[in-house]
Design a protein that fits this description.
With 290 residues, this protein is an alpha/beta fold. It contains 12 helices and 12 strands. It is 49% helix and 20% strand. The strands form 2 sheets. The protein has an 8-stranded mixed sheet. It has a 4-stranded mixed sheet with strand order 4-3-10-9. It is globular and about 50 Å long. Bound molecules: 1,4-dihydronicotinamide adenine dinucleotide (NAI) and ketopantoate (KPL). One of its GO terms (molecular function) is 2-dehydropantoate 2-reductase activity.
């Protein structure tokens, strides 16, 4: 059994390292400086684990049995096109945002949706910080490969559960990210500050209200304001992934988070003007960066 991690950045490298450590075969797909360093010096993981790994790394996909997809959401379509040229039995997205599984379902017959709260940061090429042990929920989107991916993760000692409502969980996580991420990125604050600073929290509540109305119409009943508030306070010292992207001058996933609510709102006839404002402000910041 060979597991491919397509997109060996922060999360992919961590997942790959944990699977490799358990004695399973892993191939890492990376690009740029990350590819070069992984090939020449291997992978270093620090933080909750302190280990170095010699890794089998390629800059394009190769045949494998199972594929974990860990590229950013805006790279999913391109990844799917590249993966079309190799053979594998199933692909599992562990990405944030909405729409990845639908894109993959247009290409492949066994697609698994995933939501993970494991935390990883890329300190420098080839060096990933394992920042938080979390939980991963997997569910079949197309076909029935979820249990195969869960077995691999379980063997690697990871916390994982196969669920029947992965669509709801993906949208729920997107709602939490829609409330926290753009505001932390625009205001340049840590997660807890969006609750502490009334001027920010007023806007957060509006975003949460729109997300809740849209999810409700989809049949997903979630108290978005309270759930997002709890997550922001539990992770109060975190710099959200969107804030980190903006600080590094990188593109964000805002179009797959708040943008997903704007598109779904339009479809359902529900206004999502605060989500739309977040998309426009964050995209504006990205496009204005030199
Ligand atoms: N980092 C984390 O703790 C968590 C991340 N996520 C989600 O997981 C996904 C990945 O996040 P990160 O690992 O933080 O991002 P990242 O940017 O560190 O990793 C993505 C990697 O994929 C590589 N990649 C993209 N296209 C490629 C291609 N065609 N060939 C080879 N490599 C390619 C990129 O070069 C990059 O190294 C995102 O959707 C994120 O929201 C979800 C939960 C936690
Ligand atoms: C939950 C949260 C907001 C934690 O920082 C996150 O998922 C992110 O930063 O993308």
């Amino acid at each position: 059994m060979t597991v491919m991690v397509f997109g060996a950045g922060a999360l992919g490298s961590l997942i790959g390292a944990l699977i490799l450590k358990s004695g399973q075969d892993v191939v890492f797909i990376a690009r740029g400086e990350q590819y070069r360093v992984l090939k020449e010096r291997g992978l270093k993981i620090s933080g909750l684990m302190d280990e170095e790994f010699e890794v089998e790394v390629y800059d394009r996909p190769v045949d494998a049995d199972l594929v974990f997809l860990t590229v950013k959401a805006y790279d999913t379509e391109k990844a799917a096109e590249l993966l079309r040229d190799v053979s594998f039995d199933g692909i599992c997205s562990l990405q944030n945002g909405v729409g990845n599984e639908d894109i993959l379902s247009g290409y492949f017959s066994a697609v698994v949706g995933g939501v993970t709260t494991y935390g990883a940061n890329l300190k420098e090429p080839g060096h990933v910080v394992y920042a938080g042990e979390g939980m991963t929920f997997l569910g079949d989107w197309k076909g029935n490969a979820a249990h195969n991916f869960a077995d691999v993760m379980e063997k690697a000692g990871m916390n994982v559960e196969v669920v029947g409502d992965i669509g709801k969980r993906i949208w729920e996580k997107a709602a939490i990210n829609a409330v926290i991420n753009p505001l932390t990125a625009i205001c340049r604050v840590r997660n807890g500050k969006i609750v502490e600073i009334p001027q920010i929290w007023t806007i957060a509540k509006k975003i949460a209200g729109e997300c809740e109305a849209i999810l409700g119409r989809m049949g997903f009943h979630v108290d978005v304001e309270n759930v997002a508030r709890d997550v922001a306070l539990r992770t109060s010292e975190n710099r959200s992934s969107m804030l980190q992207d903006v600080e590094k001058g990188k593109r964000t996933e805002v179009e797959f988070i708040n943008g997903a609510f704007v598109r779904k709102g339009r479809e359902l006839g529900i206004d999502a003007i605060y989500n739309e404002m977040m998309v426009n402000l964050v995209r504006g910041m990205e496009l204005g960066m030199d």
